[in-house]
């Protein structure tokens, strides 16, 4: 997206205007509607999809969940790298606030939070890995992951070059299958599907369109199928952004 599309984000009002252009209703203060899910990894308080509770277990069971992912930190500082994820109502559902893209050895931990800033999942690179592996752990309130292997939720890594059409694969801890999920397509082009071990599509990433115009790759659509843990899928997206690496260009505001 061009710099003109996003005014100076140094003020709260300009940040709201920028977000509203990505998602027309995101400027409104809308509480995300809780949607029940069938958890695939242990869920933190607040539900799988950014809701505050699971009051109505009959609502939205059959509908896919549509999100708009903006590859910018919700904090709105100049040149920051992170994610802001909005639900279909325009409410902030997930966020990742990270202010540098350092080499893997110094990358440290990436923290996936809900829209209110509560920590959900912690992602940490496996330093010695030929396939650029990342591991996911439950995050504590202090923002530190439980980093023992017994608490690891899943591992995600690049696929071998021999696996044509497969970009990455996920192994869930405790699963009898070597590959629990895999990514088909090209994340860098914002055109890929996430499938489970049975080959069923659980999520899809596509280019975002607005008024028949295709936006830049810093804004894209994420559709999560019913019964799938949205936080886990968003963790996959964060790791994909790291292992399908390309130079990061900070947004320069005029």
From TrEMBL:
Xref: InterPro entries: LOR, LOR_sf, Tubby-like_C
Coiled-coil intervals: none
Pro residues composition bias: residue spans: 33-45
A Pfam family matched in the record: LOR
Source species, domain of life: Eukaryota
Region feature (Disordered): 21-46
PANTHER family in alphabetical order: EXPRESSED PROTEIN, PTHR31087
Annotated family: Belongs to the LOR family.
Protein's name in the database: Tubby C-terminal domain-containing protein
Biological classification of the source: Eukaryota, Viridiplantae, Streptophyta, Embryophyta, Tracheophyta
């Amino acid at each position: 997206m061009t710099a003109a599309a996003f005014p100076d984000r140094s003020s709260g009002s300009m940040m709201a205007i920028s977000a509203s252009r990505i998602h027309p209703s995101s400027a409104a203060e809308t509480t995300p509607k809780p949607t029940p899910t069938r958890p695939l990894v242990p869920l933190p308080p607040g539900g799988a999809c950014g809701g505050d509770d699971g009051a109505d277990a009959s609502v939205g069971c059959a509908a896919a969940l549509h999100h708009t992912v903006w590859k910018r930190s919700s904090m709105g500082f100049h040149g920051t790298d992170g994610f802001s994820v909005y639900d279909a109502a325009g409410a902030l559902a997930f966020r990742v606030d990270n202010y540098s893209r350092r080499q893997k050895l110094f990358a440290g931990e990436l923290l996936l939070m809900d829209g209110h800033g509560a920590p959900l999942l912690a992602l940490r690179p496996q330093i010695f890995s030929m396939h650029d592996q990342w591991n996911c752990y439950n995050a504590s309130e202090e923002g530190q992951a439980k980093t023992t292997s017994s608490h690891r939720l899943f591992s995600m890594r690049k696929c071998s070059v021999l696996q044509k059409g497969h970009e990455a694969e996920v192994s869930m801890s405790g699963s009898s299958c070597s590959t629990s999920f895999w990514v088909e397509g090209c994340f860098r082009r914002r055109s890929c599907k996430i499938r489970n071990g049975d080959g069923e599509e659980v999520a899809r990433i596509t280019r975002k369109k607005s008024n028949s115009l295709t936006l830049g790759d810093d804004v894209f659509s994420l559709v999560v199928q019913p019964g799938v843990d949205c936080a886990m899928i968003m963790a996959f997206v964060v790791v994909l952004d790291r292992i399908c690496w390309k130079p990061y260009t900070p947004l320069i505001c005029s």
